[in-house]
């Protein structure tokens, strides 16, 4: 039974919407991954992608005709035949549901996608100290780069995989002329077989998921410090934890978070206060007892004692050296490589060392990706 002659109704509206949500959330997350300040949006898109994948996997068991995994064609011989037939018979008939190539395609998207989402959540917890797995930060911070690699390269793989899929659809559209490009828009395929039979409950469940994903996206990006993006590193008021450091070292610049440098850097800096970046800091400026107390605070909170991303990566990048200026450190130069040198000459910035000009709440020890705004002038 077909509503339209010569066409099979394969993809109900909810399925089509979800297909496009999966595609768009992946592409959006891919794009925003290249811009640290968009991390919240990246995470929100990743969540939607993950929830939709979960839904699709469930759908593979309880969904309507053409969607379930038991209709997938996964034998190797069928796959080979699929490509052979493509070459020898341009006008071959296409099946209404998944063909062998698209069956494998879907299985791989669901598998790679699950790895991407899981590694992303773990990376967010371990590296940023945020999200569901923030509690894993202090145990596994030393592996943050490994999680980054997995998350990144599996995503690239899925990106390539998606391009292959798009190429396949275009070949169907323009060479085989099966009008495949529009199947995920109209829901119809030029094929033979019964129309799909989505149940009332299936329909309601699908739309609930769609509505939920929109609400989740809005919630994640529009509220700061929410359940999904909350950091395990709350802003620290130096005035409260070490007033002498905050006031004595805060006269010329905002005090730098102790976790930025290792102990040996702080030692060198405190020993050389008489020639501090062309400034002469005397005992009248900062007394001997104050210096001792500041040094103790800096030592106790230096990079070695922190599991924050900036501390771990600065420390790894510093090696045996004892730099006292961030912009000398390779990691710093890499993270700021996209910024044109002329930006630092802007009147409200003036210097690379003026971290607080771009990093909001810097003096509270915050170096969040989402708290960066480069002043326009
Ligand atoms: C008399 C003014 C003055 C005081 C007081 C002062 N500093 Fe500085 N500090 C500077 C100047 C100037 C720079 C260089 C900024 C630049 O390069 O634009 C600087 C740079 C730094 C930097 C380098 C940051 C970076 O990553 O480039 C650190 C760290 C630092 N100061 C720590 C301290 C500490 C700790 C104290 C207190 C013991 C202190 N400063 C007190 C003037 C001061
Ligand atoms: C001109 C503005 C500007 C100044 C000044 C600046 N930063 Fe940044 N910083 C940025 C931007 C923008 C990024 C994000 C780059 C990106 O998108 O990868 C960043 C990224 C970082 C990161 C990496 C954050 C992460 O989680 O990946 C660290 C750490 C950092 N900055 C520390 C500093 C410190 C320390 C200073 C001062 C010595 C400083 N920055 C000065 C703009 C600035």
Can you describe what's shown?
The chain has 377 residues and is mainly alpha-helical. The chain has two domains: 8-222, Fumarate Reductase Cytochrome B subunit (Up-down Bundle); 238-371, no CATH class. Helices cover 52% and strands 1% of the residues. The protein contains 14 helices and two strands; from the N terminus they run βαααααααβααααααα. It has a two-stranded antiparallel ribbon with strand order 1-2. α2 crosses α4 and α4 (100-126) packs antiparallel against α6 (144-176). The longest helix has 33 residues, at 144-176. Residues 248-249, 251-253, 256, 269, 273, 276-277, 279, 281, 285-286, 294, 324-327, 351, 353 line the site of one heme C.
Q: CATH homologous superfamily name of the largest domain?
A: Transmembrane di-heme cytochromes, Chain C
- In DSSP terms (H or I, runs of 4 or more residues), the helix count works out at 14
Roughly what is the average pLDDT, rounded to an integer?
95
Strand content: under 5%
Give me the CATH fold name of the largest domain: Fumarate Reductase Cytochrome B subunit
Bound molecules: heme C
- CATH class designation of the largest domain: Mainly Alpha
How many strands in all?
A: 2
Q: Kindly, what is the distance between the CA atoms of the first and last residues, rounded to a whole number of angstroms? A: 67 Å
Given as residue ranges, the uncertain stretches (5+ residues, pLDDT < 50) are none
Task: Report the principal-axis shape.
Answer: elongated
Query: Major beta sheet, specifics?
Result: 2 strands, antiparallel
SSE pattern: EHHHHHHHEHHHHHHH
CATH A-level architecture of the largest domain: Up-down Bundle
The Rg value, from CA coordinates, equals 28 Å
Structural class: mainly alpha
